[in-house]
Amino acid sequence: MQEKIYLYYTNDLHSHFENWPKIVHHWKHQRNYHDQKNEPMFLLDVGDHVDRFHPISEAMRGSANIDLLNDAGYDCATLGNNEGITLSHEELFHLYDEANFDVVCANLENTGKEKPSWLKPYSFLITEQGTRIGIIGLTAPFKAFYGLLGWNVYSPFQLLDDYLDELREQSDIVILLSHLGINDDQEIANRYSGIDVIIGGHTHHLFRDGEMMEDTLLTAAGKHGVYVGQVAMQWDHEQNELVQKEAYAYPLGTQEEDIETRQKLDQYNDQAADILNHEVVRLREPLDVHWFQETKIIKELVHTLKEWTDADLSMLNAGVLLEPFSEGPVTRGDIHKICPHPINPCKVTLTGSELLEVIRQAHTKRFMELKLKGFGFRGEVLGRMVFSGVEVETEKDQEGNEHVREVRFQGEPLDHNRTYTVATADTFTFGRLLPEISHSSDKHYFMPELLRDLLSSTLQRLSLK
């Protein structure tokens, strides 16, 4: 006898709730379809469902996301870095307390003695015919961030070494929910046997038809709920083996919305507006914002960053502020709308020659006009880099390109051999945007504060002048 089993999943929704009612409507339709055919169907999420760029997630610190997953009937989820490192320790510790689904993440643990009641390395989904599906979860090991928040996060390979054999012994089918990214997923598929399917996320990659590597099927559905994923499997009870597995990711562009979900989101939007309507400051004059110019508010924010981190100098791209401030009351909601990024302050150590190269790169047209997606940035373009603690002299060539002529620190040219502490956005410690910063061996992150917390302090200081 053969049993058809269906897994449906989301990954990296990032609180893009505009797509959620379509997803829920689709899940309800699929569940009705499989129920009529007496086929098991399970719902999974691969993390980064929460993103504090959205007012609902900002105001309710992810609890509304969990409620939405409950209403949709999810069976199991892992957590992504947006759940893991953009919430305080206390907020993450209790994030899934009301979850009606299992939460699996094998490489995360609390540094204290008490463990979250919801956190498991793996769990099991069991069909009516008794087929056991073992689900293990892994999240991206941002050790520096997690450590500052009171969590330990370990190498995913170390935890697979620890758990995979015992999970395999207890399961007919093994599924990995991987919020690690495509490179690690492929490495795991090549290195380990016994994982039937890896459902991936984190790097927002898309496998429309799945990808086989060795004996493992890889699948992922992009980001923001534009696509959803399906895994179709066939288990042979006589042969006691998985005889077929396929994966698809498909868009829901013309899908109808679930009316109840849309109504609940409308209610959450109203609640979030009420929570974020708290007045933070009252401005005596409007504050202009321009992505390609140094304005008063971005200059003051960069100065706050320097003083708050006790750095030699600081730098921020003007694109972190999305809109101007009006004269009069400024609420938490206004600050969130203008600076929505889940970006933390950080401080790195650079030599004078490295710092000069960073400043040169930041003045290029390519850098300023870059439409960055990811690394915590939720704006349109990076914009002009603004500095505090150094004087940067530039000139333009005949084509209008800007070049750095000289950089001075405390009135003297940069010493190429001296080291300087530089405060900036943690965005630049990832990837290849500014390699000198990302490759620095001395990085210190400030958590759980976000840039908008420093912006609030800046606005309060300006209102007193």
UniProtKB/TrEMBL annotation:
What are the BP-aspect GO terms?
nucleotide catabolic process
Quote the Pfam families the UniProt record gives: 5_nucleotid_C (PF02872), Metallophos (PF00149)
| UniProt entry keywords in alphabetical sequence | Hydrolase, Nucleotide-binding, Signal
Highest taxon above the source species: Bacteria
Q: Which CDD domains match?
A: MPP_UshA_N_like
Is-annotated flag, keyword Hydrolase? yes
GO molecular function term, any single one: nucleotide binding
Q: What sequence ranges are listed for the domain 5'-Nucleotidase C-terminal?
A: 291-427
The cross-references to InterPro entries, in alphabetical order and at most eight, read: 5'-Nucleotdase_C, 5'-Nucleotdase_C_sf, 5_nucleotidase/apyrase, Calcineurin-like_PHP, Metallo-depent_PP-like, Pesterase_YunD
Tell me if Signal is a UniProt keyword of this record: yes
What residues does the Calcineurin-like phosphoesterase domain cover?
10-205
Belongs to which family?
Belongs to the 5'-nucleotidase family.
The name of this protein is 5'-nucleotidase
* Phylogenetic lineage: Bacteria, Bacillati, Bacillota, Bacilli, Bacillales
